[in-house]
Amino acid sequence: MNAGRLRALGLAFAIASALFFGGSGPFAKPLLVAGLGSLQVTWLRLAGAALLMSPLLLRYRSAVRTSPVAVAGYGMFAVAGVQACYFGAIATIPVGVALLIEFLGPVLVLVWARFVLRRPVTPMAVMGVVLAVTGLAFVVRVWAGVALHPVGLLLGLGAAACQAAYFLLSESTASVRPSALAAYGLLIGALVMTVPARPWRMDWSVLTSRVELAGHELPAAFAVVWIVLVSTVFAYLTGIVAVRGLSAPIAGGVAYLEPVVATVLAWWLLHETLLPVQLFGGVLVLLGAFLAQWGAPPRPVDSLGTATETTLSSGRG
Fold first, then answer.
1. How far apart are CA 129 and CA 125, in angstroms?
2. Among 129, 157, 188, 302, which has the minimal tally of Cβ within 10 Å of its Cβ?
């Protein structure tokens, strides 16, 4: 396959990955409304996806022996931490707002690098931080006394912090294949979430009930299958294929379609709307986060393309 066709294929799969990831919140929220806790929905997603990706666990079992810290960090932060905080956030604030806050991860990385690690940052990155913080002020409407549920806001920031934590640890994943990182990350994430989620105390009858989506009643099991199969397994696998044909900046840029997709789906399926001023703020947040990521010092990329994968899929909602 020539380089042009490979890039086109990579772009198509990157867009598909963003679409799949963006659908997790809108399909998870009806389960939360039906009575499941956010930690339980997170556990269902991770455990189901880990089970479906178990063949990769056997194929890449050496990853645990060669890079245990990297794999554990991915599972705890980029998988369990981000998704638990994100699902917790959307229980009380709009899906689009929660995902916009989560995408502040690259901004937090630069703030940490500048003020904690005392590393210089580029003017473009500084501009990105300013734009993102300004956009966040519009999204939460600070002049109205922060018109969001405080718990949801904090959990959204927690998702951003977990995303940032993984970006800061990303160099240690250079020796791990992206597919192995995804498979073992999901497994570790599911194991980490088992204790706080306590699935043995979950009301499993909810999964046999019906939930409302886009004004229609659908089986709750359909929503579970969607967030497990489409928004996790398909999302990660298409992301892995995408990074083979794209550079890190392009892959990272396409990933910013995710909040747009989530906001549109939340409007269509959940009837959640954002005010024009919040949409304007959302544009500033995404532009600022993109500039912050683009202006950050480049991470080393190994022959497996692992650094590119961290740009594309770490911390996805």
1. 6
2. 302
Confidence of residue 279 (pLDDT cuts 50, 70, 90): very high
How many angstroms separate the CA atoms of 143 and 222, rounded?
Answer: 40
Residue 186 has pLDDT above 60, yes or no: yes
3-state SS, one letter per residue, for the chain: CCHHHHHHHHHHHHHHHHHHHHCHHHHHHHHHHHCCCHHHHHHHHHHHHHHHCHHHHHHCCHHHHHCHHHHHHHHHHHHHHHHHHHHHHHCCCCHHHHHHHHCCHHHHHHHHHHHCCCCCCCHHHHHHHHHHHHHHHHHHCHHHCCCCCHHHHHHHHHHHHHHHHHHHHHHHHCCCCHHHHHHHHHHHHHHHHHHHHCHHHCCHHHHHCEEEECCEEEEHHHHHHHHHHHHHHHHHHHHHHHHCCCCHHHHHHHHCHHHHHHHHHHHHHHCCCCCHHHHHHHHHHHHHHHHHHHCCCCCCCCCCCHHHHHHHHCCCC
| CB 144, CB 77: distance < 8 Å | no
Q: Which of 30, 33, 31, 49 is nearest to 41 (CA)?
A: 31
- 162 CB contacts (<8 Å, ≥6 apart)? 77, 78, 81, 82, 85, 105, 315
pTM value > 0.90: no
Higher-pLDDT residue of 290, 34: 34
Cβ within 8 Å of residue 142, ≥6 positions away: none
Tell me the average pLDDT across 98-125: 85
pLDDT at 249 over 60: no
